[in-house]
Each structure stands twice: as C-alpha cells, then as structure tokens.
Specification:
The N terminus is likely disordered. The chain contains ten helices and no strands. The chain is elongated and about 90 Å long. With 294 residues, it is mainly α.
C-alpha cells in the first residue's frame, strides 16, 4: 500500500512539475528511459556504424571520381565500388536494427507511461474528477504519451545522430578545404537565428493545436455519452453548431502551425541554396584558377 501511495505521489509531482515548467519536461521524463539505458547504448553503437556511411561515402565517391579522371585502373575501381557497397550494406543493416530497437523501447516506455497516468487518474479525488473533463483525461492517456514516446525514439536519437554527422562531416570538410568550409560556416549564425525565432512561435502554435484538440475531444466525449438527452430535448442543431465552432477553432490552430512552418522551412531552404551557390562559385573559380584557397 505504501508503494502505491508513493508511486501515485511521484506521478502527481511529475505531471504537476511538467505543467508548471515546460522547459524542464524532457529532463523529468528522462527517468522513464533510465531502465533501458543498456538498450540506448546499443542503439548508440549501431548509430555510430551507420554514421560512418554518411561520412565515408562522399570521400570514397570523390576518390572514385579522381581515379576515373586520372590513371584509370578497372580492378582498383571495382575494389572501391565493392568497398562502397559494403559500407552501404552495413549502413542499411544498422539503420534497420536501430529502428527495431527504438520501436521496442518506445512501446515499453509508452505502456509504462500510460499505466502510470491511468493509475494517477484513479487516485484522484471525486472533486478533482468533477472539475476535469472526461475528454481531457482521455487525451492525456491516449495522445500525450505518443508524443513522449516519439521524443525518446525519434527526436533525441535523430538529434544525437545529426550532431555527430555534422561534427564528422565538418572535420572531413576542414581536411579537404578549410577555406570553403569557413565560407559555409558563415551561414550558420543565420540558421541559428531563424531557429531561435521559429522555436518561440512553433511552441505557441503547437500548444494552441494541443489545447484545441483537447477541447474538441472533451466536447465530443461528453456529448456522445449524453446523446440520448440531447435527442430527447431536441438540441441536435445547437450541439452541432457548438461542435462546428470547436472544429473550426482546431482548423485555425492547425493553419497557424502550417503558416509558421511554411515560413521557416523556405527560409532555411533559401539559406541552403545560397550556401550551395556560393560553394559552386568559389569552388569553380578555384578549379579554373588551379588554386585550393579562395
């Protein structure tokens, strides 16, 4: 009995703390990943092997192009192509194993989180249950844990993988041509600035979509459970209009989210194209002038 009470208090403090301080939510939710730290280490090792393809393949392809342009040796070319194929095969196998492991970990975390939330809901008092709409509780048990599971199985892993890829590719670029690399790095502050601004607006629109979804689920759950009362008093049109208003509110919230992403992504793509154009210009000029520096 003591374990159950302490467990409920722990879940209650976790949910309350997350709602009070959203900035610290991922850090507090990391405790759900602690029991599977060995699995995450295995994913990390597999990730390192798959990252090798992203770093080595461009260098290998560039070396193959140099061989074709210079002294062409068919046997040596076959050897390089075979090495590239082996690297690609290892990368594909690692990507598959990584996806399988992450999905298994994510489902375990998802099940644990849903059980904890349901246990916490059962421990609420009658007064608290009367003040919380049923649809909101349903959303907390069904939709929100999926987002948290996605955090562990996709966002954090992708962030770690992309960070290591950036470091590895940056090191390779510096080894090949430090001048062109420094030129490309001039675009990084603009990307960081756009990301900071986007983060502020994206959090606002995501929260608006989440609140609108919760409001719609709450209204739908309450009215479906009392649909007979609605029919008895002939209030179908009024309920339909209220449901339509909530649906429109959710639609507008999603439009706002699409608008924010519709501005951010083209701006980042514009920076990407500008970077590629500068790279092609200075690289072509260096090749024509037979120089390696700008």
């Amino acid at each position: 009995m003591r374990y159950s009470v302490d467990h409920d208090l722990h879940i209650h403090s976790l949910l309350s703390a997350c709602s009070r301080d959203p900035e610290q939510t991922p850090a507090r939710l990391m405790q759900y990943a602690k029991p599977y730290w060995k699995d995450f280490i295995g994913v990390f090792v597999i990730m390192l092997l798959s990252i090798g393809h992203n770093i080595l393949s461009p260098l290998l392809v560039g070396h193959i192009e140099e061989i074709v342009k210079a002294k062409f040796a068919l046997s040596y070319l076959f050897t390089l192509v075979a090495i590239y194929g082996v690297i690609l095969l290892i990368s594909l196998v690692c990507t598959y194993l990584q996806a399988i492991l992450l999905q298994k970990i994510g489902q375990k975390i998802l099940s644990k989180l849903r059980m904890d939330i349901f246990t916490h809901i059962e421990s609420l008092s009658h007064e608290q249950l009367n003040n919380i709409p049923v649809g909101k509780l349903v959303t907390r048990v069904t939709n929100d844990p999926n987002s948290i599971s996605f955090l562990f199985t996709n966002i954090l892993v992708t962030l770690a993988k992309n960070s290591m890829v950036v470091v590895g590719v940056l090191a390779a670029m510096l080894m090949l041509n430090y001048a062109l690399t420094l030129m490309i790095l001039c675009f990084v502050p603009f990307v960081v600035l756009f990301t900071i601004v986007f983060r502020k607006f994206s959090r606002r629109v995501h929260r608006a979509v989440s609140n609108a979804t919760t409001d719609l689920n709450t209204y739908l759950s309450e009215n479906l459970s009392g649909i007979k009362i609605t029919q008895i008093f002939n209030r179908e049109d009024e309920k339909m209009e209220a449901f339509r208003q909530r649906s429109l509110h959710l639609q507008q919230a999603k439009y706002q989210r699409m608008f924010v992403f519709g501005i951010f992504r083209p701006m980042v793509y514009m920076l990407h194209i500008s970077c590629v154009m500068c790279l092609l210009y200075f690289g072509s000029r260096g090749f024509i002038e037979n120089t390696t520096l700008l």
